[in-house]
Design brief:
This protein is 33% helix and 12% strand. Strand 2 and strand 3 form a beta hairpin.
């Protein structure tokens, strides 16, 4: 074992018992969000740039949680007038 590697967590020990694990989150690309909302990719980019929809940056990549997109969609609902 190389020096310094003894403190790295192994996959089976990593976050199991620390209380730091997170639930599985489905991340979507800009293209996937566009398809889900049935709008163009530039429309999704505008929403993201104007911070109308929440997003996550991982490295240089922009991703969206499916839950955030579904919440955004629900907030856009306009009630019918009787």
């Amino acid at each position: 074992m190389p020096v310094g590697d003894h403190n790295l967590p192994t996959p089976d020990r990593s976050l199991k018992n620390t209380g730091c694990s997170t639930p599985d989150v489905e991340l979507l690309t800009i293209a996937e969000v566009a398809k889900l909302l049935r709008v163009s990719v530039p429309s999704v980019r505008r929403l993201q740039q104007r911070r109308r929809i929440p997003f996550v940056k991982i490295g240089g990549c922009v991703r969206f949680t499916k839950n955030d997109i579904m919440l955004y969609l629900a907030k856009q609902r306009v009630q019918a007038v009787d």
